[in-house]
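Practice record 12: protein with zinc ion.
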Amino acid sequence: MLITNGKITTFGETNEIIENGALRVEGSRITDVGDTARLKAAYPQEEIVDAGGQLVMPGNICGHTHFYGAFARGMAIPGEPPRDFPEILGKLWWRLDRALLEEDVKYSALVCLVDAIKHGTTTLIDHHASPAAINGSLDLIAEAVAEAGLRASLCYEVTDRNGRSGAQAGIAENVRFLHAVQERENPLLAASFGLHASLTLSAETLADCVAAGFSSQAGGGEGGSGFHIHAAEGIADQEDSLRRSGKRVIHRLHEVGILGPKSILAHCIHVDAWEMEILRDTGTWVTHQPRSNMNNAVGVAPVETMLRGGIKVGLGNDGFSNNMWAEWKTAYLVHKLWHGDPRRAGGYDIIQMAVDNNAALARVFWPDAPLGELAPGAYADLILVDYHPFTELTAGNLPWHILFGFEASAVTSTMVAGKWLMRDRVLLTLDEMAIAAKARELSAAVWQRYVELDA
Ligand SMILES: [Zn+2]
């Protein structure tokens, strides 16, 4: 297939915008990129999809999300509003996750996947919790991902907050799914080993996770897929870690063997210089989720410092909408306000996290070909964007066009691995109306169970 008559926005090493450009898709990959006239002449027999002058861009990548949180939308939290992050966890998330049963797990994922396709987010790294339905939960999400046709890496968050048996069931689910993914036919699915956060993990459980992780090749070694955990999201995580172990969170996690070039630490807001040094030296991934951080009032991660020092920081959404450009914009704005300096967090810092580093993070899970760029050999994960600039648009000023001009509603078509998931705003793999109707029915029952758990 040739996608012609587009502004091909390559990102990646070439980082150019090819006016009246085209690209050729064969199977799951891009095989040629260039001028429309040249590609039409070179491939006269190909099916042609005319982009009509739209931008053709790599699909967005989300480095950390929670499909399971979808049913929180519009839900009332009984009693006094939570006054800090631990209260938000206790009153909202740790009750909502316990109210989820099997079908809820699947539909929470499906509604997020609809949202991702519509907003042009083609790769998602999810972190799942459903303590009342642990065993097999990742298969339910995997089914939803396969129906959607998106690319996703999944894990189950191990925690001690549902007792020793809950922790062991979480470990078993990670191990089971890591093996299942290796045997699974679907190359769009990947896995890592999930843990909640230092503050809900005892020394024994951490050790069990690392032992199970390495035995299922989830450790840092070749062929493994690493760990995915929240770290230093609130100050409570540091206080708890010091109380339990006499060590700060990053030191505690490093000492047991959680860190490494395939592991993801979400947030890392309250980390000091020596913890950053460990993150850099171990090549550990950090993800930044400013919308969630603002909502929870937990602070702002020192991502500019981390980037300057060579820490690999990507961008996630922590369960907020899969409109990743909204997360880009928040990242661009919040550091300016936080530091009282409009020079902070420039457009290139945002691109480095959201495009370059997220692409490299995705490569941990899909090592065979590049994502996040349009180049021969890269996966054909791309979007068409109906954006007509009224000022000059170049590869150099593209970040500011995105930050100030792009809306996710401009995404008209979404392709993953060479397959259209949305064309001209029509979803091709998922039935949004039917999914939303079923989700409304299921979520009403989830809200009811949530209130009963609260009583
Ligand atoms: Zn999270």
